[in-house]
Design brief:
The chain is an alpha+beta fold. It contains seven helices and seven strands; from the N terminus they run H-H-H-E-H-E-E-H-E-H-E-E-E-H. 55% of the residues lie in helices and 12% in strands.
Length: 273
């Protein structure tokens, strides 16, 4: 019924009944209207009520059968979906395993490539901290000055290639110098001398017109190794490691004096520290 129908019945104090209830009510009113009720009347009423119950039972049975059929269809659908989900879950697990395997392979290949590139730089050094005096400077002479200051004389025949790096915008520091030595022995000799003379600065090179700046002589690192070194510096800070250094292109770490030295070759090594 609509809201208007309900309002009408309420306002007029009327009663509404569904058809089965109305029929039962009419039968009851017939009995009530009679001054005497015969056995046949009662039997007829009971028969009609039984027929009404049979119709309701039949209708209810049909509804229940329909519900059972629908439930069975839903169960079949759920079972089918469960089987499909199981199949997709297996595919996802296989793909996850394959992806993990491929990532390990890629990581291994990257490590091998990085190792090969780092090996190709075994004769190369980077010198940082020497200011640029003028355009067209003689970079080779600067390297020779570093060699003299470290008491490791460098001759022209010892240098294979030498150049300035590009200036980093906003760094405020002079660009470094890359020098590739002909022999690995000379590169290691300069590094060893720099470790001994820890206070090497620009005054030692004759640049006395400004305050002394530290001059660093480092191994040249491949891009991947340099990225790993930057990550290692952050881990050193986060996990309170005391020592971090480079030897032969390898990144080495030690938490405290006397502890075992740990070689860092991948990001996983840092994660496992």
């Amino acid at each position: 019924m609509s809201n208007d129908d309900v309002s009408y019945l309420v306002e007029n104090d009327e009663v509404w009944r569904c058809d089965p209830c109305a029929q039962t009510r009419r039968k009851s009113m017939v009995l009530e209207s009679k001054t005497s009720v015969s056995y046949d009347d009662v039997l007829k009423l009971v028969t009609e009520i039984k027929d009404d119950f049979k119709r309701v039972e039949t209708s209810l049975g049909g509804s229940l059968n329909a519900c059972h059929e629908e439930i069975a269809q839903i169960k079949d659908l759920v079972n089918k979906q469960r089987e499909e989900l199981t199949a997709w879950a297996k595919i996802a697990e296989d793909l996850r395993s394959e992806n993990a395997s491929l990532r390990r392979q890629v990581s291994s290949l990257e490590a091998r490539m990085d190792e090969a590139e780092q090996y190709s730089r075994r004769n190369t050094l980077e010198i940082h901290g020497i200011p640029v005096e003028k355009k067209g400077e003689n970079v080779v002479s600067l390297v020779k000055m570093v060699g003299r200051a470290l008491d490791y004389p460098v001759e022209d025949g010892m240098i294979d290639a030498c150049h300035r790096l590009r200036t980093r915008d906003g760094s405020g520091k002079p660009p470094g110098i890359v020098v590739k030595m002909v022999r690995r022995l000379d590169a290691e000799g300069l590094l060893q001398k720099r470790r001994v003379k820890r206070n090497l600065n620009t005054h030692d090179l004759g640049h006395t017109s400004r305050p002394a700046d530290v001059v660093y002589v480092n191994e040249s690192l491949a891009p991947g190794r340099r990225k790993l070194l930057n990550a290692a510096r952050q881990v050193k800070k986060d996990k309170a490691y005391t020592y971090l250094w480079i030897r032969g292109g390898k990144i080495l770490m030690r938490k405290n004096a006397g502890d075992r030295v740990k070689v860092v070759t991948t990001m996983d090594d840092l994660a496992n520290l």
